[in-house]
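Input record, target 12 of the design panel.
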């Protein structure tokens, strides 16, 4: 945890918050916080600052929070993720938030098992919890938007272009016609599409290419979904970072 994240409703008008559960245990057991200690803190979709430990008990910790700095810049990129196995989805949600994606679109591809759409990992509460873990790690406060598209064809044909207006589009798929990710234009958001563990079908690849997706690869060998996300997400951050000589 590099940033203690609180919901706005957890902080009283006087800035005091009482935490229980995972975050309280982390402060007590990992950071060994004592009264008077300051920890870096932020409020979801808001600013950052500090939280002073006022007191601690067996199951709770009391803080006085001050959010006097602006929130880190909001992301602009979109991750399109074919719904993977539940445990992989949890990892990907954390990684997507840590990498700064502004939006996560979950969709059903041909190789997505129907049971994955009904898993507990797909519930808004579970997705939010894992997005928050990724935000804590990367010291971000902007919560990514999550959209769910249960049918591939109407999503791609009817809604995709409106959702991705102005985006450069990358389709991650190893193959002879795949190349390295192209340079991202200055200030241009990128949409990265990742398939399930068994990959996209030829029909899905052609449907996305017809919508302007360039086929890119993270290397000559297939990778696990969450590994590919980290590799390509990292390349995306590097391509968008300002050059030191500018």
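The sequence produced for target 12 reads:
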């Amino acid at each position: 945890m590099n940033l203690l994240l609180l919901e706005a409703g957890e902080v009283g008008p006087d800035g005091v918050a009482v935490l229980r559960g995972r975050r309280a245990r982390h402060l007590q057991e990992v950071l060994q916080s004592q009264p008077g200690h300051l920890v870096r803190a932020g409020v979801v979709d808001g600013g950052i600052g500090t939280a002073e430990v006022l007191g601690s008990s067996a199951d709770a910790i009391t803080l006085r929070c001050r959010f006097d700095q602006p929130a880190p810049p909001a992301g602009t990129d979109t991750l399109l993720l074919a719904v993977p196995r539940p445990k992989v989805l949890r990892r990907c949600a954390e990684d997507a938030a840590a990498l700064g994606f502004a939006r996560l679109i979950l969709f059903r591809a041909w190789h997505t098992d129907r049971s994955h759409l009904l898993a507990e990992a797909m519930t808004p509460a579970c997705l939010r919890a894992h997005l928050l873990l990724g935000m804590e790690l990367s010291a971000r406060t902007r919560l990514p938007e999550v959209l769910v598209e249960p049918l591939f064809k109407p999503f791609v044909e009817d809604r995709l272009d409106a959702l991705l207006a102005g985006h450069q589009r990358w389709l991650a798929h190893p193959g002879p016609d795949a190349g390295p990710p192209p340079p991202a234009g200055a200030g241009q958001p990128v949409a990265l599409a990742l398939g399930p563990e068994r990959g996209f079908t030829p029909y899905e690849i052609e449907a996305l290419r017809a919508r302007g997706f360039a086929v890119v690869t993270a290397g000559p060998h297939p990778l696990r979904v969450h590994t590919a996300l980290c590799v390509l997400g990292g390349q995306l951050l590097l391509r968008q970072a300002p050059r030191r000589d500018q």
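The chain has a mean pLDDT of 91.
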